[in-house]
Amino acid sequence: MTSVSLVAPGDAPLTLPVAAAPAPARVPTARRYLMCEPRHFAVEYRINPWMDPEQPVDVELAVRQWRELKGVYEALGHRVDVVEPAPGLPDMVFAANSGTVVGGRVLGSRFRAPQRAPEAEHFRRWFEANGYPGVVMPERINEAEGDFTWTGRYLLAGTGFRTDPAAHAEAQEALGVPVVSLRLVDPRYYHLDTALFVLAEDLVAYYPQAFSPGSREVLAGLFPDAVLADERDAACLGLNAVSDGRNVVLPLEARGLAAEVERRGFTAVPVDISELRKSGGGPKCCTLEIRD
């Protein structure tokens, strides 16, 4: 609630309450997602600060949490396609890192870590077999939707830890969309999708401290009304979230972020993804969006 002061000549000011503008109506759109069950999930190596091979992993729990996430998407009216997991690729569950699809064009991935490199071919074959014969495979390191986020106008492109800066130009050529480069500076937020997600066109949520000063200026200029997450919500990978324009699927620990998106007119849909977080992943990491 805000207030306005009215002053008549010779009178003391009269302050009247003015109701704050209501949050805009948010409209969901049906999405198509690609996912991969964590049947072979493990933490066998360390390629980000979240991973600890000494920490026990409960594969059954990881599968259960993944199935619940998939069920949430389906209950919201979205289509979920599934890639068959391959033995020996414990991080294949993080499907978002394996392709970027905008307007029916598919740009594949090239992983920095050799342990994950074979995943790219598995996903390329899935796309080829499912009506996308023109998959472009990158020459530069490109970890796909891990570092590429489509806003509806721009492809926000992260770099600093995984994806090469030169991959941003490759993405622009392959997808035919304008690319905005952003530099990540905190190793805990090694992919763009751990520090930023799109709520709706022209509205994002992000953790400012994950970005370089120049990138923060770019984000502030492009998205002046953005939701700014705090350290607590960023630290539970709360920004590794998925929005359909109204419903925001995010880790259940991100309570402050959930409250803020609800204040903006969205519906927060908390999910438990704690077991997969042991490998540095959350809802978005598990979810590659196919945009035809």
UniProtKB/TrEMBL annotation:
Question: What GO MF terms are annotated?
Answer: amino acid binding; dimethylargininase activity; transferase activity
Q: Which UniProt keywords apply?
A: Hydrolase, Transferase
Query: Active site: which residues?
Result: 191 (proton donor), 285 (nucleophile)
Report the record's Gene Ontology biological process terms: arginine metabolic process; citrulline metabolic process; positive regulation of nitric oxide biosynthetic process
Q: Its domain of life?
A: Bacteria
The UniProt entry, under InterPro entries, shows: DDAH-like
* Family from the record: Belongs to the DDAH family.
Q: What PANTHER family does this protein's entry cite?
A: DIMETHYLARGININASE, DIMETHYLARGININE DIMETHYLAMINOHYDROLASE
Annotated protein name in UniProt: Amidinotransferase
